[in-house]
Structures are given as structure tokens and as C-alpha cells.
Amino acid sequence: MSTPAPARPILDITGLTVRYGPRRRSRRALHDVTLRVAPGEAVGVIGETGSGKSTLARTVLGLVEASAGTILVDGEDVTRHGRRQWRALRRRGTVQYVFQDPLRSLDPDLTVADSLTEPLLVRGVPRADAVERARALLTRVRLDGALLDRLPGEISGGQRQRVAVARALITEPRLLLLDEPVSALDSANRVQVLEILKELRDAGTALLFISHDLGSVAGVADRIAVLHRGEQVETGTAAEIIGAPRHPYTRLLLGSAPTLRGPAPSSRAERDALRALLPV
Amino acid sequence: MTALSPTTTAPAAGQAPARPVLSLRDVRITDRATGREIVHGVSLDVTPGRTVGIVGESGSGKTLTCRAALGLLPAHVEISHGTVEIDGTDIATLTPRRWTALRGTVLSAVFQDPASYLNPSIRVGEQIAEVLRVKKGLGRRAARDRARALLDAVRLRDPDLVRVQYPHELSGGMLQRVLIAAAVAADPRVLIADEATTALDVTVQAEILDLLDELRERTGLGLVLVSHDLALVAQRCDEVLVMRQGEVVEQGPTRTVLHRPRHAYTRLLIDEHEQYGLERFRTPQEDA
């Protein structure tokens, strides 16, 4: 790979392998994955059911242990971090995350203001300043400051996901991990969240955008890695992956995604031929 | 599909259209409980071997329209205006017994969540065989053999294994294939697929849609594809209806709707794809 790294990567994953289960009968969820995300760069990870993409997300957040390989976060080797070290790292707020379901990252009993300001109050930021910052972040995710007093259950799904993004941003993370961040949203909200992500990337945040949906990843990611059954089958710029995919799985994926204009991306016969090339 | 004539093919474009098997004329649907009209007039024709698509978000009325055509509206919801004809028969004249006879044999359907349409405690082969015994009057052994042939026809990799499995042992894509096998078991002439691939991975979605296309070509099945995804419908359908809040805001041949959308909502759906779809990366294709 000759892609020049613009700066020291915030996330540097080398040869990551994850196995689940008892040693002798373990199942490989991820095999030899190598990825780098630099500041201001958005890297997409595409995969379907069983691809290992969620395992990747969980490993980067220290929720699953790596069986082999290394993970560096902002130069610090976190691969063998214990639970306490991970917690400390998360507290620092260098890495933040947004999941598909915002209710997973928002406390249902906390108002939007409380969810947003809590990490700042813990650090001793005066309440008035914290609320001011929360209000500014809501504006940044195109939400009205009036939502500050609401509970997550009282706002729409699209608003909730934007609050989850704002919550992730309050600690000014250098890396934002997004696991299916727009998959549960309708088209208008999807576009809004994707726009916000692009702004963040342009402002220098590193994004790791994990999804099954090529279209939304392609709209934001500079580079894309394709996972299939735990293997990283192809990595390249978004234009390379989508314009000239090489691996049969990537070609099948692209040939399967419906597009609006022009003829079908591939014929039924081509898809059948590609399916035959992949392991059962 | 051994029981269906393999020589029937879709009518070529330009040929006189065959008589519609399913025909909706200005169908309006009203919730009797509130007196509110929910669907404000849908007209469409499904002829053998053709595919009609309905696009809309949740709440657009696309599913209610399908349910009206299937005679499966919720208790307090009714067709308040217009007609639905199945194979030339106005459904308003159908007795419950005639409805039961029609469903599956003339008109059939598959939905988003296949698991909820299967009995979890009965092997899937037996469930398809039951459809064949009830709808086609087949004997036990003939029904079992035919069920196996159907599982093979929906391209399940190992029909002899799948036949004796329970629904929980199968993946979402496999379950949807089983449901399609059951839905086409009694050789219907129109199949309604309402968000049938929404919950599936995109490669599995393409497999299922390829399968439906293949059935359509081989047997002359008419298809109604219902989806929230304009691109999916655009790619597979001859005609498209765009629904929004109970209203058909746009309707016509797919090419016309995509290239000359008249309604702002259709343009919005198209714009979203062009901005965030894969289209951006493709060299613009010749508009043949």
C-alpha cells in the first residue's frame, strides 16, 4: 500500500486477529486486519452479517480482547491494556463512539443537557460553561437549544442520534468510532448526520465509520476496507473500491447494491458467477 | 417450478399488454374508528410477467394498499372508495370462503419478517407441504416431494437438509427463501413482496430479488415490489408509484419517473441517492 499517511495515525491497527470461545474450539471472528486512520481522515469499514465488523469496533473500544496483532491509539499501544487502563483511556475522551441505536449511548434518565455536560462537569468545568458548550454542540449538530431539557425518550430518533453525536463530541475526541450510525435513520436524518460527519472530518477529527451500507460510507470515507467473514479482502480509496473493485466479494457487494441510474451494476449471471467464487 | 409451464415468458415491450391479474382503481382506504381517510386513491395494474414498484416511507400507505389488495386490512380499516379486481373479479363480491381460495392460488405475498409467518415448532418442509395439501389438494407424499422441489427451486443450497429443519435453524435469507417457496407453492399469478428484503444484507437482498426475477421470467408471475428504497424499485420494476402520506405523488414508467420526476418528493429521493449513493463514483451511463 503506497497511500501516504498525512500525519501520525490516531488509530493504528496491525495484524489484528480476534478469536472467540475456548482455545481449542475457538472461532475466528477477525483475521489479520491492518488499518490506519490519520487526523482529518475518514476510513470506512464495510461488511455484512458475520464479517467481523462489530468485533472490530468492540476491540478498538477495549470491549473485546485481541488474540493477536496490535492496536495503537494516538501512538499508545493499548493492545494489552487491562480494564482499568481502558477506562482511563475512555475517560480522557480521546476516542468516542456512536452506535446505531442512540439509546445505547444515552442514559434514558438524563436530560440532553445532563448527558452532554456530565463529562465536562467531571473534569471540573463550571456548570454554566458546560451548558454553554452543550448548547454550541447542539447547534453544530443542527438541533435547537430547546432540546436541552428533554429526555432521550421525548425526542425523535433522528434528533436522538444527533444528540448521541453531540455527546461523543463534547470531550473533543481525536477519533470517533461510528458503528452503523445512520442505519436506523430515515433519509432526511441520514443526510444530516452524514453532513455533520463530513464537517467533523474536515475539522480534523479521525473517523472510523463501520457499516453494511456502502452508499453512506462512500459519501464520507476517504478510504474503505472491505471485510468478508473476518478477512480484510480489499482496502483502497473510496474511488478505487467503488469504481474498480478487485476482489470477487467487493464486486458482488457492488453488483448487489441498487443504484438509480444507468443499467444494473451487474447482471444476474455475473452475480451468480461471483457467488460461485466465494467460499460457502 | 415443475408444475408451472416453463415456456411462459414475459410479454415483450411494445406488445399489447396482457389482461391485468391485479387491478386497483382509485382505491381509497379509511379508518372507520377515526373516520380519517389514510390512502387517497391508488390505481395500478399488474399484468403477467411485469413488475410494479411502490416506493414510500413508513406511513406512506404502501403496506395498507397491499393489504387491501390481499383482503387483509385491519378490522377497523376499509376500502371506502374504488375497486380492486383480482383476475377480473371485484373483491367486494368475494365471500370469506372465496377469499381463502384466492389467496395463495391467484395472489400471494411475502413480508419483511419471514420468521413471524412460520410456525416455530414445525419443520419448514412440512409447512410448505401443508400449503400444497390445502391449496392444491395433493396427497401427503406428493406434497412432501413437491415441497422439496420448491425448496430446490428457490435455490436453497441443501433442500434435503433445510426440509427437516426448524425456522430458528435458518438464517434470515434462507427463511425468506422458504417463505417465497410457500408463497409460490400454489402457483399464484401475482406475488406481492412488501419490504421482503429490507432486513437482509445487500448481497442476500440481490439473491432474493434475482430469485423473484427468475420466477417471473420462467412462470409469468406478476410482481409488486414494495420498498422504502427508490433505487431497489427503480432497478427491478417496469412501473413505479411513489407514495407519500397516503397519496400517490408520482406514477409512471420507471425511466420517466427517474429522468423527469415531476414531484418535489421524488426529486428529493433522487437527490439523496446522487449525493450519497454509489452513483457519484460511477461514470455517467449513456441514457439509452
UniProtKB/TrEMBL annotation, chain A:
One of its GO terms (biological process) is transmembrane transport. Keywords: ATP-binding, Nucleotide-binding, Transport. Gene3D superfamilies: P-loop containing nucleotide triphosphate hydrolases. One of its GO terms (molecular function) is ATP binding. Pfam families: ABC_tran, oligo_HPY. It comes from the Bacteria. Residues 11-254 form the ABC transporter domain. Belongs to the ABC transporter superfamily. This is ATP-binding cassette domain-containing protein. It comes from Streptomyces doudnae.
From TrEMBL, chain B:
The keyword Lipid metabolism does not apply. It holds the Pfam family ABC_tran. Keywords: ATP-binding, Cell inner membrane, Cell membrane, Membrane, Nucleotide-binding, Translocase, Transport. GO terms for molecular function: ATP binding. Gene3D superfamilies: P-loop containing nucleotide triphosphate hydrolases. It is found in: Cell membrane. One of its GO terms (cellular component) is plasma membrane. Belongs to the ABC transporter superfamily. This is ABC transporter ATP-binding protein.
